[in-house]
Design goal:
Layout lengths: L2 E2 L9 E2 L16 E4 L7 H10 E6 L3 H6 L9 E4 L14 H11 L3 H15 L3 H14 L6 E5 L6 H13 L3 H14 L1 H15 L4 H11 L3 H15 L2 H8 L4 H11 L2
Helix pairs in contact: 4-9, 4-10, 6-7, 10-11
C-alpha cells in the first residue's frame, strides 16, 4: 500500500513510493503523492509539503475550490483539472451538494450504494471525465524535480481513481491496488465519524439506516471499485484497453512513465 505521511491536519496524504509492481520493481519514493484537499493545512504541513512537492493537481469543482481554496505553497505550481463539470452530491463537498445528500440518500442505503457505483462508472464512460484524467496522466509525463500531489476533497473517489490509474499504468499488483484504495477508510475514519455525528445533530436522532447510507457516501467501498472495473471490462475489454483507447496513452508513453517512476 501507499505510505501515510504523518501531517498535522492532512489525514489522507500518502506517498505511493515503495508499492511493488508485477515485474519486481517499485514506485520511486517522493514522486507520487495522493491526498485530500489542502485547506486547513497547518504551518508545519505547508512547510513539509514545500520540501516534498513541486506540483499540485486539484480535481475539485470550481465551487469546491472557491469555498475551500488550497493554500499557497512556496515553489509549488497548482493545476486545476476538475473531474466533474457539475455538482455531485456526496462526492463534491460544496454546501449545496451536502444539503442534497440529506434530501436524497438518508433513508435508503441501497440508493446511496447505487448512486456511488454510478459515480465510479462515470469515471470511465463520461467523455469529459475521461479527458480530464488523460490531462492528469499527461501532466505526470512532464519532468518534475519533486513530487506531484493530486487531490479532491476527501482523497478517496476522484483522487482515489486517479491513484488506481497511476498504479495500473505502472504495473502494480491488482491486490495491492485494491488495498491502497480501501486504505482511505482507515485514514478517514475520524472524519467519517464526525460527518455522521453532524448529520445526526441536524436530524435530532440516530438512524441506523441513515448511518449506513452515509458510510456508503463518505467511505471507500469494494462495490465501487468492482463497479468501475466491470464497466472498464465491458467498454474496453480490460484496464489495458482503457489506458490505450480511453486515455489514449500509447505503449511507448506507458513505458516512459515506468522509466520515470519505477526503480
Amino acid at each position: 500500500m501507499s505510505r501515510l505521511l504523518y501531517l498535522e491536519n492532512l489525514h489522507n496524504t500518502r506517498d505511493l513510493g515503495g508499492m511493488e509492481t508485477t515485474d519486481g520493481r517499485r514506485i520511486r519514493s517522493g514522486k507520487l503523492i495522493r491526498s485530500g484537499h489542502l485547506y486547513g493545512s497547518s504551518t508545519g504541513d505547508l512547510s513539509a509539503l514545500g520540501h516534498l512537492i513541486d506540483t499540485v493537481v486539484d480535481f475539485r469543482t470550481p465551487q469546491e475550490k472557491e469555498e475551500k481554496p488550497d493554500p499557497a505553497v512556496s515553489g509549488v505550481k497548482f493545476w486545476h483539472i476538475p473531474i466533474f463539470d457539475s455538482l455531485k452530491a456526496g462526492v463534491t463537498r460544496e454546501e449545496e451538494s451536502d444539503a442534497q445528500v440529506i434530501r436524497m440518500m438518508m433513508g435508503d442505503h441501497r440508493r446511496a450504494k447505487a448512486y456511488m457505483c454510478g459515480i465510479y462508472t462515470d469515471f470511465v464512460s463520461v467523455p469529459f471525465e475521461i479527458s480530464q484524467y488523460e490531462k492528469f496522466v499527461r501532466l505526470l509525463m512532464e519532468p518534475h524535480e519533486k513530487a506531484v500531489l493530486w487531490h479532491c476533497t476527501a482523497g478517496k473517489d476522484r483522487a482515489g481513481f486517479a491513484s488506481v490509474i497511476v498504479e495500473e499504468l505502472l504495473g502494480v499488483d491488482r491486490a495491492a491496488i485494491r488495498a491502497d484504495y480501501l486504505q482511505s477508510n482507515e485514514c478517514l475514519a475520524e472524519d467519517i465519524r464526525e460527518l455522521i455525528g453532524m448529520f445526526y445533530a441536524m436530524e435530532g436522532e440516530e438512524n441506523p439506516e441513515a448511518e449506513l447510507a452515509l458510510r456508503y457516501l463518505f467511505g471507500a467501498r469494494e462495490e465501487f471499485r468492482d463497479a468501475v472495473y466491470a464497466e472498464i471490462e465491458k467498454r474496453y475489454g480490460g484496464f489495458d484497453g482503457f489506458i490505450s483507447d480511453g486515455l489514449h496513452i500509447s505503449p511507448d508513453e506507458r513505458e516512459a512513465l515506468k522509466q520515470m517512476y519505477l526503480v
